[in-house]
Amino acid sequence: MARMGMVFDLKTCIGCNACVVACKQENSLPDGVFFTKTLSEEYGVFPLANRVYIPTICNHCDDAPCEKVCPSGATYTRHDGIVMVDDAKCIGCSSCAVACPYDQRTTMDADNFLKGLFGTGEITPFEKEGYARYTPGTVTKCDFCSQRVDANLDPACVVTCPTNARIFGDLDDPHSAPSKMIRERNGRPPMPEKNTRPKVYYVN
Amino acid sequence: MTTAPPTANSLKSGRWIASTCKMCLHSCGNLIHVTDTGVINKIEGNPSNPSNNGKLCPKGNAAIMRHYDPNRFKQPMRRTNPEKGVGIDPMWEPISWEEALEYTAAQIKKSLDEDPRKILPSLEDFQKFNIWAWPLSFGNFNFYQSGGTMCGGAYHPVNGFIHSAFACANDAKHCNYWINNGTGDGFSSHLHAAAQANWVAKARTERGMRVVAVEPRLSIAAAKAEEWVPIRPATDRHFAMGMSHVLVYEGLCDYRALKRDTNAPYLVGEDGYFIRDDNRQCYIWDKKNQCAKLWNDETIEEIALEGNYEFNGKPCRPAFQVYKDILADCSPEAMEKITTVPADTIRRIAREFARAAQIGATIKVEDGRTLPLRPAAYNYYRGAQGHKHGAQTNHSFKLVNMLIGNIDTPGGHMGVTLDPKEVDFNHCSMGESGMLKPTPHQLGPVPGFHYPPSTYHMMDYFPLGVHPPHFNLLMHENREKFGVEFTPDVIVNCHSNPVWAIHGSREKWFEFLRGMRFIVCVDIIPTEMTDFADVILPSHDVLESWNCTMIEPPHTEGQCFRQPATPPLHDTKSEEDIFYELSERLGILEAYNNVINLTLGFEGHPELMLELDKKYTDKEIARRKGLLWDGNDIEYYMEHGHSVTEKRLDKWYRPWEGCRLHFYIEDYLVERDKLKQQMEDANVPFRHEWEWDDYQPLPSSTLDPVHEEPPEYDLYAITFKDIQLNFGESLSNPWIKDIVYRDPVHTGLLLNPKTAAAQGLEKGSIVKVESPYGRLYGRISVSEGMHPETLGVSNALSRMKSKAAGVLPAGGHYNDMLPYDLKNTDAASAQPETVCKVKLTRLDDWPDFLKQGRTVYDLVEDYETAKGKGGHH
Ligand code: SF4
Ligand code: SF4
Ligand code: SF4
């Protein structure tokens, strides 16, 4: 059994957001909707000030509060650990969005699809074809590009990252690139105090 | 098991086409996915291209949104509203291609027949030099586009002097100590951002390469660097000279390289010229024999770099000693006063840099040569070099590198040619006295001296410069003074937005444009510039057209091939079709083919040369460029999308082997005196105003005039871009807009919080920002990542209200605050100052013009109040 996970290398991430745009491309996300974001956080005082770029994504928690609260069984964990939402079952109650400590869930309002990416109401052929996958009124999030994973491809954000700051693979395999990185560079999960057991780690 | 069709775009049934990105001027290899229904739904990097290694920057990831932009120009159009202005609807009327071309050609022809200088070209397609060079077909050297000095004014000529190349980069493959001064090289901008970011990330993680970023603002490079060195704007040269002082006075130089590979030992007379014999050969001082000998005299026993000597009764010094004497006044302590960088920091970085350079070390490279290994390098770009004394500034950075012997050496500071093919055209050859032949005109021929001027931007007076587009305005306002005898009345524009980009007041530029009899724009989407067009000739976009190019790639070479992933969505044409059709109607077809043969290098290859009376498609020209590179025909390129390989090492490392590099650039004096004489002979009235001191064979520590503005302007202002905004238009793209305006550095005028407090301002204060030359309005953001004397203005806050383009204004344009005069322009290179002094005034409310319609600040507020959209944690 695999446990697919991702490591973010905070040493190399340049906050370019290529990953964010690649995700928007791959998933035909409407304007203002993100499955992944790169935050830019400043710290320290001049002249020792610095800024860190922090990629964020659904952590595919082993102990996922979103899954626990989901009343319809729409949220489930796949054989390889990817946390999925079945929009045929989702009733749009948004309990999961409240339960997720990482704010990683988005309710796809119908108006998301009406104004179009250019905000004019004109829907481009790209959107027309891509929006078909979504059911308005349901909740959605990153699924580690599960279909790409099935096809033996890395997620879209990973392949485009110019600095290789996103490393994806099987955390159960001690020889996988992310396992090695977590071990060698002391990988830490986000907000461990929430006890959700993320499959996403950060190294510095 | 279900077999539901995939929903992920890249997995839908369709095909992948190997092509090339053009969201900036570089040329990353990409793969374009087209579904069975003909929709382009995913673009990825092409992993077989060793330049970008399958990576794309955010802009490269966003090309689909340019393609499907509903605002695209869908057919040729003619304006019906005589009133021109940004945001004023031109009331386009669709016309046929035939009518559009006939009408446009007739309008251009009128000026061409009267005086070809009345045509103002604004052709900025940097992936198609066959379009760029079009004006040469009628001997026109005018220039009204945003490249030129707006990009790298003094940078290109100095690269031409030092490396005989167009651009420069640090060698990420071997470097261990990487200084970035006012550049994003390896992090966010400069050459091939996506590719170089990939190389540099590897160097940092695999080799532990140390990065030092010298900048007034905590840029991306500075945020990633091991050390950020905040510096007062427009003092980068002084930092470099402070470092050089330490290298020279502490004996930390690569003396062997300086003696053997540079003109640093050549003897210089009191007039600044080299001492020469009757055959114009230079001399070197032989310390052992206490006499001067010709540079190539094999009996020289000990080359002197230092000392004061006498030759034929006249005092002389080695060029190295001349610089050493200049550097005497540039101690770290003295430079601290100018740069605000602590002397200890300058001294420490210089020593670390010299130590990392491993002077004396060698490396055996794959081509069998044993070369010096100098894994320390200093790179810079627009932010650091864009100053009044641009030529000297660029030169000062080169000299930091040359002192440690790292020019074009493994781990060092590298010259990069504009087109990889140049290395096969002998881009390095020997000039005078064993020195590398300088090639300062990296962007093609220059007009030479004329008075009255033959160009509207005064290129006649910059024998060693790059086109200064800002001088079109200076000339326009001072026609009598500069003696110009013609007035441009036609603009031919292609993928260029000068009215958005160039120094000076937007209002004045609007007037300038309104004075034109006719403006044609060849473009894809509306911009500030197209709001002034009389005719739009819509072109295909990058996903619909052919091309073959590779622009200034570090580490790799080859050609990147563009091919259509889809038939054109709209009634558009390729740039080639448009310019051939116009050329034929203008009667310049033969001349144009001649120019293309020369520009693209077909000349001398009979099988590739264009026949003069024929018109060629974008596809055919792309095919020939591929053939020219490696003999592969179009089928090869269509299959692979590129022919990129690692650089041939003999063309990358020390391609000038056997020549001496220009430590001392005597040509600045030669050209200065030549120009002086020409101006004298022609009795040029403004010759006494010309800034003759700008021509220096070595950098001086003179201050740029921006530091001498009246004291009420108590802050410096700088502008910047990041990787999401690199080169050209970005913000009309919804995906780019969606990431840029969520990044705090792009959503307000950046001030250090202490400075803000001292000015009585806080986050959110609305301010008027005034320089001696112009103003803008904005909202204050505070950041500890700002030098306390500096206001940072993102380029994302510079757009003008243009309904069609869907971009949002923010309160003015940084470049309105920049001067466009002789005083603040480098006479040696035409580089204008890009920093200004400003004063801030707090306002209670936005001025009225910003209350009408949405601004960037309204959008940012919407983002901040939006809920449940997958936000922060
Ligand atoms: S693409 Fe890579 S470097 Fe760029 S923001 Fe995403 S994780 Fe960071
Ligand atoms: S990050 Fe949030 S949405 Fe993702 S699995 Fe964990 S709780 Fe669920
Ligand atoms: S760096 Fe330039 S060429 Fe490369 S992906 Fe980005 S926009 Fe495209």
Biggest pleated-sheet summary of chain A: 3 strands, mixed
Question: Which strand-content bin applies to the residues of chain B?
Answer: 15-25%
Strands of the biggest beta sheet of chain B: in what spatial order? 5-4-22-21-20-6
Radius of gyration of chain A: 17 Å
Number of H/I helices of chain A? 8
Number of helices of chain B: 27
Global structural class of chain A? alpha+beta
The sequence of SSEs of chain A as H and E is EHEEHEEHEHHEHHEHE
List the helices and strands and how they pair.
The complex is a heterodimer of chains A (204) and B (873).
Chain A: E1 4-9, H1 18-27, E2 36-43, E3 50-57, H2 65-69, E4 75-77, E5 83-85, H3 95-99, E6 106-107, H4 110-114, H5 125-130, E7 139-140, H6 146-150, H7 156-160, E8 166-170, H8 177-184, E9 200-203
Parallel strand pairs in A: 1-9
Antiparallel strand pairs in A: 1-8, 2-3, 4-5, 6-7
Chain B: E1 14-20, E2 29-35, E3 40-45, H1 63-67, E4 77-79, E5 92-94, H2 97-114, E6 119-123, H3 129-132, H4 149-152, H5 155-162, E7 167-170, E8 177-181, H6 193-206, E9 210-215, H7 220-224, E10 227-230, H8 236-249, H9 255-261, E11 267-269, E12 283-286, E13 291-294, E14 309-311, E15 314-318, H10 319-327, H11 332-339, H12 343-356, E16 362-364, E17 370-372, E18 376-380, H13 382-385, H14 390-403, E19 413-416, H15 471-477, H16 479-482, E20 490-494, H17 498-501, H18 506-514, E21 518-523, E22 535-538, E23 547-549, E24 556-557, E25 560-562, H19 575-586, H20 589-599, H21 618-630, H22 634-640, E26 645-646, H23 649-652, H24 667-681, E27 715-720, H25 734-740, E28 749-751, H26 753-758, E29 766-770, E30 775-782, E31 790-794, E32 836-843, H27 856-865
Parallel strand pairs in B: 6-20, 8-9, 8-18, 9-10, 20-21, 21-22, 27-31, 28-30
Antiparallel strand pairs in B: 1-2, 2-3, 4-5, 4-22, 7-19, 11-15, 12-13, 14-15, 16-17, 23-25, 24-26, 27-32, 29-30, 29-32
